[in-house]
Amino acid sequence: FEPINQIGRARNTGAAAATGKWLLFVDADSQPSPELFAAAAEAMESGQVIAGGTTVRLQGGGWILPLLAGSWNLVSRWGRWLAGSFIFVERSVFEELGGFNSEMFAAEEIDLTKRLRPLARRRRQRIVILYRTPLETSARKAHLYSSRELLGFLFRSVLRPAATVTRREACSPWYDGRR
C-alpha cells in the first residue's frame, strides 16, 4: 500500500514501475475479457490512438448502479471520457502530463481525459472508447452503500466537483473502509 491511500497515487506508482511503451490500468474488481485486451492492443498498434478506455457492465447489484453504468456508457462513448476501471495510455504521453492528479481522491480519470484532449488534437490522434466487449466489473458498492449515499456522492460531485473530489472524507465510497 501507498503511504497515502489514494487511487491516483497508487496508479502513478504502478506506472513508474512499468516498463512498456503503453500503460494499462485495470481495477482489481474487474474481469477484462481476452477480446477486450485484443481490441485495446489493436487500438494501441494503430498509431492513431493516444489513449483509450471501455464501456462497463456491472455484475449484479440493485437498480441504481446498472442505471448509472448505462448512463455513463452513453456519456463516455459520446464524449470519449475514460472510465477508471480500464484505461490504456501511451507512456510518453502519461509522463508528459504528469500522470494522474495526486490532489484528487476521485474522478482522476476525468481529469486525465481533460488533459489528454489538447495533446491528442495537437498530435492528430484520438481517445477511443471500446464498446463491443464491455468490461465486466463488480457492483459491490451497490451492496455496501445505499442508493441515497451513491446518488448523494454523484450530485455533490456534479454540483461542487472540486470541493468533493479533492477531499478524502467526501469520497466515502472509495475510502471509508466498507468491504
Layout: helices, strands, pairs:
Layout: H1 7-17, E1 22-26, E2 30-31, H2 34-45, E3 49-59, H3 64-79, E4 86-90, H4 91-96, H5 108-122, E5 126-138, H6 140-144, H7 147-159, H8 161-165, H9 172-175
Parallel strand pairs: 3-5
Antiparallel strand pairs: 1-4, 2-5, 3-4
What does this structure look like?
By secondary structure, this protein is α+β, with helices and mostly antiparallel strands. It has one domain: Spore Coat Polysaccharide Biosynthesis Protein SpsA, Chain A. Helix content is 49%, strand content 20%. The chain contains 9 helices and 5 strands. It has helices spanning 7-17, 34-45, 64-79, 91-96, 108-122, 140-144, 147-159, 161-165, 172-175, and strands at residues 22-26, 30-31, 49-59, 86-90, 126-138. It has a 5-stranded mixed β-sheet, with helices on both faces. The longest helix has 16 residues, at 64-79. The two termini are 16 Å apart. The mean pLDDT is 91.
Radius of gyration: 16 Å
Largest sheet: 5 strands, mixed
Q: What is the typical, i.e. mean, pLDDT?
A: 91
CATH topology: the name is Spore Coat Polysaccharide Biosynthesis Protein SpsA, Chain A
Number of beta-strand segments? 5
H/I helix tally: 9
Return the structural class.
alpha+beta
Give the termini separation.
Answer: 16 Å
Global morphology: globular
Annotated CATH homologous superfamily:
Spore Coat Polysaccharide Biosynthesis Protein SpsA, Chain A
Number of domains: 1
- The string of secondary-structure elements, in order, is HEEHEHEHHEHHHH
